[in-house]
Amino acid sequence: MIRLLWLVPLLPFAGFAVAGLLASRLSRRTVALIACGTVLASFLISLGAVAGLGALPETAAGLQIDRAAHRVTQTLWTWLPLGPDGNGGGLSVAWSYVLDPLSAVMLLMVTGVGFLIHVYAVGYMGHEPPVGFARFFAYLNLFMGMMLTLVLGGSLPVVFVGWEGVGLCSYLLIGYYYDRMFDERSGMSCADAGRKAFIVNRIGDMGFMLGMLLLLGATGTLEIQGVLGQVPGLGTGVATAAALLLFFGACGKSAQIPLYVWLPDAMAGPTPVSALIHAATMVTAGVYVMCRMSPLLVAAPMAMLVVAVVGVATAVFAASMGLAQTDIKKVLAYSTVSQLGYMMLAVGVGAFGSAIFHLMTHAFFKALLFLGAGSVIHALSGEQDITKMGGLDRHTPRTHATFLIATLAICGVFPLSGFFSKDEILWNAWLRHPAFWALGIVGAFMTAFYMTRLYILVFRGRERFSDEARHHLHESPNVMTVPLMILAGLSVVGGLVGIPAAISLGIPNLIERWLEPVLASPVAAGHGATAAHGAVAQGAAHAAAAAAHSGGLEIGLMGLSLLVALAGIGLGWFLYERRPGLPERIAGSVGALYRIVYNKYFVDELYGRIVLAPYYGLCRAAAWFDRWIIDGAVNAAGYVTLGTSYASVGFDTVVVDGLVNLTGRVVRGGSKALRVMQTGVVQSYATAMVLGLFIMVSVYLLWLGH
Amino acid sequence: MPVPAAHVLVVSLLLFAIGIVGVLTRRNAIIILMSIELIMNAANLNLVAFSRQLNQINGQVFGVFTIAVAAGEVAVGLAVVLAMYRNRDSIHVDDVQLMKG
Fold this sequence. Notes:
The complex is a heterodimer of chains A (about 700) and B (about 100). Chain A is built from 28 helices and 5 strands. Chain A is mainly alpha-helical. In chain A, strand 4 and strand 5 form a beta hairpin. The radius of gyration of chain A is 38 Å and the shape is elongated. Chain B has a single domain, classed as Orthogonal Bundle (Helix Hairpins). Chain B has 3 helices and no strands. Chain B has helices spanning about 5-25, 30-55, 60-90. In chain B, helix 2 (about 30-55) runs antiparallel to helix 3 (about 60-90).
C-alpha cells in the first residue's frame, strides 16, 4: 500500500480535472460521487500506507527507506535540474513524496477531515446550480491535491508548490460567491475578500521563498532531509535568518500577527470551505512547515523566541477580538487565529509535538464548529448574525449537541480533546517562561468566554430570528449531521492519544512517542551546538529535568487552567444566560473600549492608512505619469502628425491641384477661342485655305520672288 | 497661227477663278461639284497649254489621266450627294455641320 503513496495527491487532482472539465455535463450527483470518492480513496490509501509505516521492509522497489527514522521516500522524477553545484556534482530537485510519522499525522487528518467535509458540503451546497456545484467541488478537490502535495513534499520546492496551490484554491473558494457583497459596511465583496487573502499570503510567501533561497545558498540542496542534515554546520546567523524568513511565510499562511488580517475576511467563502481550508488544514500548513524544519529552529534560539512571542501575542490578541464579534463565522475565525497562535507558541517553546497534537485536535473541533455553524446558517436560510439567533437547541438537536461538544472541547474541559492538547502547550510554555503561560491562560479564559457567549446566543435563550427564517427552520439532512457526529466523536476522544505523563495512570503518550523520531527537541540539540545556544538549551534541559520531578506542579497548573476555563464558561453563562441585558450595559459603560474591540483594534484601518494609502498614492502618481507624460508624448506625436497632415493637404489642394486646374483652364480657354473657327461648314475652311494660299502666293510674288 | 500660251493661261485663270468662287459661294452640292470640275479643267488646260509650248507629250498624258480621275471623282462625289439626299432630304451643304466645334 505504501507504494501507492503517489496516488494520494493524484486522485483528488484527477477528480478536479474531471469535475472541472466536464462541469457543465455532469449532474450534481455524479460530481458529488467523484469528489467524495477520490478523497475517500486517498484516505484509505493513506490509512494503508501509514499502517505499513510501522513495519517497514528493508528495501522496496522505487522507495528509499530509512527504518530508524520510520521514513519512506518515493521519488517520482527529477523535476528541476539546476545544473552543476560547483563541487563537480549535479544539483537537482526531485519530485518526491515523504511519508514519516509527522506527514502521516497530517495525511490522515487532511484526508479524513477533508472527506467528512466533502460529504457535508454535498448537503450544504445542494441548492447551488449544477455548474456552480461542479466548480465548487473541482476547487475543493484541487485544494485536497495541493494540500497533500504540501504535506508529502520531500523537498522545499515541492512543498512550495503545494503551499502556493492551497493559497490559490483558498482565493478561488473565498471568492466562490464572487457576485455577492461580503461586508456592507466597508463595501467589500466576496471577490475582494479572496484578493485580500491572496495578496496578504503573497507577502508571507516572499519570506518563504527568500528563506528557501538562503538555505539553497547555504547548504547547496533543497531536499528537506539534506538541508536538515547540514543544520549543525550552519552559523547561528544564517540559521536564524532562514528560520525567521520561513516563519514569516508561516505567518501569512497560518494567520499570525502581523499577517492575520485576511483570515476573518476569508469567511466570505462557503462554510465548508471555512471549515476545511481556514480552520482544519491550510492554515495549519505554516505550523506544519515549522515542525518539519524543527532542527533548523532549534539551531536558532532567537528565532524561536520570536516565534513564541508572536504566537502568544496572536493567541491573546485574536481572542480579545473574538469577544465582540456578532457574525457567527467571524467569532470562529478569530478563534482560529487565536488557536493557531497557541500552536506557534508551542513551536516557539520547542514543543513541536504539542503543536502537532493541538493542530490535530483543533482540526477536529474547529472543523466541527464551522460545520455546526454552517448547519445553523443553513437552518436559518443564510442568517449569520448571532444577535438574530437564539433558542435553536429545540429545533436543531443534532447540531446543538455536536456544537456543544465542540465548544467544551475548545474551552479545554476535561477530558475532551482540547483540554489535553492545550494544557500540553501551556505546560511547555511554563517550562520556557511563566510569562508565556500566564498570557496563554488569559487567552484560554477569553476563549472559554467568547465560545460560551457564542453557544448561548445561538442555541439558548429567546428566539430572535425573523418569522421568514422560522418558516423554513429545519434540522439539516443526514448527509450534513453524520459528519458532525463523527467529528464530535473525534473531538471527544482525540485527546486521549496524548495523555500527559503526570496523569497518565500508565497509559503511554501515543502521539509524542509516534512523532519522536521526526521532531527535534531543544534538549537533544543542545549537544554540539554553539556555546550560546548550548546555554539556552541547557537551561531548557534543566527545566525539563526539573519537570520530570514536578509532576505535582504540572497537575496543579492543569487544574488551574481547567478552573480558568470553567470560570470563563461560568462568566459567559452568567452574562448571557442569567442576565441577558447585562452585556449591553457593560458594553455601554466601557463604550470606548468596546468600540475598539468591536472594530478589531482598527487594525484593518491602520493597514489601510500605512500600507494601502501610500500604495494607492503611488498608483495615482503612476497613473498621473501614465496619463500626462506617456500618453502626453503619444498624443503629442499624434497632434504633430495631424498638423503636418493638414499642412500637406493644404499644399496639395492649393498648389498642386491649383497648377493642374490652371493647365486645364488655360487649355479650355484656348479651346473656346479656337472653337469659333470650327464651324463645320466645309466652305468656310475652303475660303480660309484660298485666302491663305492667296496671301502666301502674294507674299512670295511681291517680296520673296526677286 | 497657233494660240499663244499666255491666252490659254488667261482662259484657264478665268475658269479657275470661276470655279473657286463657285466652290466658295454656292450651297448646292451639285453646283459645287460642277465648280470643282471647272477648277480641274482649268488645270487640264494649263497642262495641255504648257505641253504644247514646251513640245513635250507628258503634259497631255497627264491631262488624259486627270480626266479619267475626274470622272471617278465625279462618280464618288455624286454618290456622296445621293447618300446625303437620302438621309437628309437636302443637298445643301449648310445643313451638314457635324464637324462644328
